[in-house]
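Input (structure):
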């Protein structure tokens, strides 16, 4: 049976090329057919069409989080014990919370705790736990405490289970911390995949991702560019899609080397995993690799020394030829490469490699993850534009970490999140969260949309306000530009005939609201394919 809906009496921000605002639209079987006035839409409708009176609400296209880690949110919010600083203030309390978890866990099974970045500074002891602390949780269970994707700490049973001993070597770019006798302390940095860190069984992870996707729908997100960091993360998305439970339209990026080997990519085995899956729901976007690490862990590759570290500039994970080979082979497969590049030296090398592959780059829309946050000189901006590269900066960092970068590195980083300059150069800026579950609303696009307009931190400090963008530009980052970044602008990102009926209903008038209040917006309804997939209940929020 044909399913036809008409949404009328709305303020529809179509996000089309002219930024048109209309009253109404109509969709048939999940595809928009008319956009216009109430009268035009109702006149064209079938008598049996369902008419939805929006009662003057604002309707926007479904939002897209183009650099997501729903896999990590599933661990943080569903599978692991919550040991963030909001719950534990000391290592003793951490041990207590994890011991409660161990008590309810069969012997031999993993006990995981999910904390937050730089939590060493937040524990009363002023340090990270080590294996001996975590041995107080249990000697009968392998125990892991995760501070970030990069920092994972294990108890003795876990180290034994994974076979990590004094003889285990550090993987390239990773480090096993050792005590004076050379024994592992339990603290590991960027070693998780190399030592075989724990992953939930695929079906368990898929169920957790299924629950987390409802949290995304509740904040108006209908699409993801999901960067799978671990192998089960990709398999869980495939499993969810196969069983018909994946609601979010997901474009998938598999991380090398944790999720895929070079051979898996070049042989076509990665693409073959997506055979038979409805592309509308889940499709392969490309491959992600880390060219350097984070700034705060001093792992980003810089052109000049780190402050206070004469001679130290961080490391690149690949040389120019290796990176060119990757860009070329991913391009040859018709896929995107998503290069994580934080430091200016990494950015330059990523641009050099993409330039070396020539003309095909523009059509592939290769991505540089975190480009557009820092180090954006006029020269780099014009290189990004000329090469057709998609910069993927994190607008939410304006609220939290941006000013810290300048305090740490000084003026050489240039303007923070210079979105005005990037948009003026013709670049499509891509909305995304990079959320891994540090806070309960880290995946929510509305605070980030606000920040790109107001340029204020959470505390109200200004962050290079001359780089502010307009509401339409900021919302555009999470709609049409994000759709472009995942090669889906023909079906997503705006409300126009021929595109999917994915949309969000909000009570506030986005065109007149004080921008400082955008972050608090809670969508009333979220729709995918002309189906209502989320309704906020009428109860006041606690
Ligand atoms: Zn990320």
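Output (sequence):
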């Amino acid at each position: 049976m044909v399913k036809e809906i008409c949404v009328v009496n709305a303020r529809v921000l179509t996000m089309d090329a002219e930024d048109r605002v209309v009253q109404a639209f109509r969709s048939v079987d999940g595809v928009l057919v008319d956009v216009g006035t109430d009268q035009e839409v109702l006149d064209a409708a079938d008598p049996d069409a369902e008419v939805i009176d929006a009662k003057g609400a604002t309707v926007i296209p479904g939002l897209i989080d183009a650099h997501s880690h729903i896999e990590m949110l599933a661990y943080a919010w569903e599978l692991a014990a919550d040991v963030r600083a909001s719950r534990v203030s000391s290592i003793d309390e951490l041990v207590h919370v994890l011991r409660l978890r161990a008590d309810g866990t069969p012997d031999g099974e993993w006990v995981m705790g999910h904390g937050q970045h730089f939590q060493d500074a937040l524990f009363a002891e002023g340090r990270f736990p080590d294996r001996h602390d975590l041995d107080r949780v249990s000697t009968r269970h392998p125990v892991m405490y995760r501070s970030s994707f990069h920092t994972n700490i294990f108890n003795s049973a876990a180290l034994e289970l994974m076979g990590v001993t004094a003889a285990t070597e550090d993987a390239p770019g990773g480090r096993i911390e050792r005590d004076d006798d050379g024994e592992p302390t339990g603290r590991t940095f960027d070693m998780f995949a190399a030592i075989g860190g724990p992953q939930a069984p695929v079906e368990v992870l898929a169920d957790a991702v299924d629950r987390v996707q409802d949290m995304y729908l509740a904040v108006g997100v209908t699409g993801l560019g999901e960067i799978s960091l671990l192998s089960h993360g990709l398999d869980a998305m495939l499993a969810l899609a196969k069983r018909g439970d994946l609601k979010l339209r997901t474009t998938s990026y598999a991380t090398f080397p944790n999720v895929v080997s070079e051979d898996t990519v070049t042989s076509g085995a990665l693409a073959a995993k997506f055979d038979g899956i409805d592309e509308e729901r889940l499709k392969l976007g490309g491959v992600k690799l880390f060219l350097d690490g984070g700034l705060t862990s001093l792992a980003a590759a810089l052109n000049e020394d780190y402050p206070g570290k004469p001679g130290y500039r961080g490391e690149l994970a690949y040389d120019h030829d290796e990176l060119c080979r990757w860009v070329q082979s991913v391009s040859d497969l018709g896929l995107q490469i998503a290069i994580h590049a934080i430091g200016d030296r990494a950015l330059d090398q990523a641009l050099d490699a993409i330039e070396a592959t020539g003309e095909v780059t523009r059509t592939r829309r290769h991505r540089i993850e975190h480009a557009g946050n820092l180090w954006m000189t006029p020269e780099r901006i014009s290189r990004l534009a000329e090469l057709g590269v998609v910069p993927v900066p994190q607008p939410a960092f304006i609220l939290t970490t941006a000013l810290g970068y300048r305090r740490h590195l000084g003026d050489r980083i240039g303007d923070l999140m210079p979105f005005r300059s990037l948009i003026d150069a013709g670049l499509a800026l891509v909305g995304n969260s990079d959320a891994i579950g540090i806070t309960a609303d880290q995946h929510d696009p509305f605070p980030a949309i606000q920040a790109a307009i107001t340029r204020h931190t959470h505390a109200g400090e200004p962050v290079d306000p001359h780089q502010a963008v307009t509401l339409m530009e900021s919302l555009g980052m999470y709609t049409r530009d994000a759709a472009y970044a995942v090669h889906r602008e023909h079906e997503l990102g705006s409300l126009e005939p021929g595109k999917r009926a994915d949309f969000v209903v909000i009570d506030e008038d986005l065109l007149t609201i004080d921008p400082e209040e955008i972050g608090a917006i809670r969508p009333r309804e979220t729709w995918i394919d002309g189906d209502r997939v989320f309704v906020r209940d009428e109860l006041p929020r606690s």
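Notes: The two ends are 41 Å apart (CA to CA). The domain at 76-189 is CATH 3.10.310.70 (Diaminopimelate Epimerase; Chain A, domain 1).
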